[in-house]
UniProtKB/TrEMBL annotation, chains A, B:
Superkingdom to which the source organism belongs: Eukaryota
Keywords from the UniProt entry: Acetylation, Chloroplast, Hydrolase, Magnesium, Metal-binding, Phosphoprotein, Plastid, Transit peptide
Family, per entry: Belongs to the HAD-like hydrolase superfamily. CbbY/CbbZ/Gph/YieH family.
Enzyme class: hydrolase
Binding residues for Mg(2+): 38, 40, 259
GO molecular function: metal ion binding; phosphoglycolate phosphatase activity
Record's protein name: Phosphoglycolate phosphatase
Cofactor annotation comment: Divalent metal ions. Mg(2+) is the most effective.
Cellular compartments per GO CC: chloroplast
Naturally occurring in which organism (per UniProt): Chlorella sorokiniana
Catalytic activity: 2-phosphoglycolate + H2O = glycolate + phosphate
Active site: 38 (nucleophile), 40 (proton donor)
Length: 316, 316
């Protein structure tokens, strides 16, 4: 219980993490009104749902908890990403998904992006669909996938002077035309913003290997503009602020649940959230308990399904 | 004279720069055996040779000076870049050109790149041609210009395990296939090097505007590998070391002549070279003499052609 009570004030980091007891789990449920889930390694592994997770989600929903499924995938909108859940037999609403494509649109809405301005998109359909839902004008994206810069003496590319933000998300059709167009907007349109959905080095296009992620697309634009982007996806602060505001919650009423210490747990701790590590993904108990690790979640358990224990009779 | 005498030891930076007198110019010629020229703004401006420069180069050659023309353009080999000089009526040998494509090949030669290993090239023909001249095997480059990653479940890209270096130069045909291939080599081939011809944010593909430079291509690979490249072109130390070794010269016997304070002059000063600023390019005398500027060349003059003054009778 001490561990949970200390959530969010940093005191828990000095003691060795303890595997969550049933009391710890009940304390979490008493305190937390919203669970933010990293998906890979928590909800599913590759193409398989982790045992007991659907039942756990059902239990949390029955208790009235708000669930948020976070992904840095920007290639799909929330509606597009929903298919992955449905295909896996998970009953999730698109409003419960927080994709980095949505984060970009939500950010522009939050800063009251001017109605008469446009966004230039480096990225795939997800960003466009989310911008459409917010009524924000945009150009670029898939429409520029096959454009080439054919050089002639004196040639120049003319950027639309109404572009006031460049949003950069993962783009399998990244090309020099898009890089130059985005660079011109950022360098030459006064005040033009540079927004990155995320900076992930690698992404999981297929299970067979790790693929270069949006770190590449953002790196390309950073390299030609010498400007740092505003990041809106995980682990940016904006997402937490946006979720806390939307549901009217204090930070410690929100629990970040993930399988990675240096991203998920650290992100939650830095944001003042309650943090939960599950061992169903990339982190082992040995790594967690190693003296080399200083990132301690408030609670940890084998998998999210271990939360079902709170439903068992006390002496079972 | 005091300015020249102090060259290379940094003492000159504390006093206000003085426009070079005929004595300063003669002192430079007494001391310096090799001139390294930045080209744009020094030799030519856009498509026109700067007045008096061909005669100055002839004079320096007649005095036995070694001339080196430096460019961060990696899209052409030295032989390919020669055409630009010839078209402008300048009499230059390809061995006098130091392109960043050549720098990449010279670097691999200097570190004794293994004969049984290969280079993966992100870039255009210049790098390939220079690697061929050194007998270094390579793959990628223009051959991968139209390759696409067509996703299927379980798909993976398999990199050649013999790739022991990735060389990244400016590439108008940058695409996701190349980014992923380069990323795999750097992340998964043990010891694989990551070499950048240069990090220039912008380049001059046409005179009509600035174009995103190799900073974009390098930024893309940096973003997915989280590795820093070894830079071989300007302003990397390797080029100076390579030139000094090749001609058997001390650093202060080499003069860096350029039109930019924060690149050319700073590069020369950091490398212990004698430094010459010409006002025929981007830097004005006002900028040079401003109290805000702390980068002081050993000598400065209106243009390289001002060196011709040393041939005039003393009282002319």
């Amino acid at each position: 219980m001490a561990v949970v009570a200390a959530a969010g004030n940093g005191a828990a980091t000095s003691s060795k993490p303890q595997r969550a007891t049933v009391q710890d789990k009940k304390a979490i449920l008493d305190k937390v009104d919203c669970f933010i889930f990293d998906c890979d390694g928590v909800i599913w592994r590759g193409d398989s749902v982790i045992d007991g997770v659907p039942e756990t989600l059902d239990m949390l929903r029955a208790m009235g908890k708000q669930l948020v499924f976070v992904t840095n995938n920007s290639t799909k909108s929330r509606a597009g990403y929903l298919k992955k859940f449905t295909d896996l037999g998970l009953n999730v609403k698109s409003e419960e998904i927080y994709s980095s494509s949505y984060a970009a649109a939500a950010y522009l809405e939050a800063i009251e992006f001017p109605q008469d301005k446009k966004v230039y998109v480096v990225g795939e359909v997800g960003i466009q669909e989310e911008l459409d839902l917010k009524g924000i004008a945009h150009i670029g994206g898939p429409a520029d996938a096959d454009k080439k810069v054919e050089l002639k003496p004196g040639m120049l590319l003319e950027q639309d002077p109404d572009v006031a933000a460049v949003v950069v998300g993962f783009d399998r059709n990244i090309n020099y035309y898009k890089i130059q167009y985005a660079t011109l907007c950022i360098r030459e349109n006064p005040g033009c913003m540079f927004i990155a959905t995320n900076l992930d080095a690698v992404t999981h296009l297929t299970d067979a290997q790790e693929w270069a992620g949006n770190g590449s697309m953002v790196g390309a634009i950073r390299g030609s503009t010498k400007r740092e982007p505003t990041v809106v996806g995980k682990p940016a602060e904006f997402m937490l602020e946006n979720i806390a505001t939307k549901f009217g919650l204090r930070r410690d009423q929100i629990c970040m649940c993930g399988d990675r210490l240096d991203t998920d747990v650290l992100f939650g701790k830095n944001g003042g959230l309650t943090t939960m590590l599950v061992l169903s993904g990339v982190t082992t108990e040995e790594q967690l308990l190693s003296p080399d690790n200083s990132i301690h979640p408030d609670v940890y358990m084998d998998s999210l399904a271990a939360m079902l224990e709170v439903k068992l009779p006390v002496n079972a």
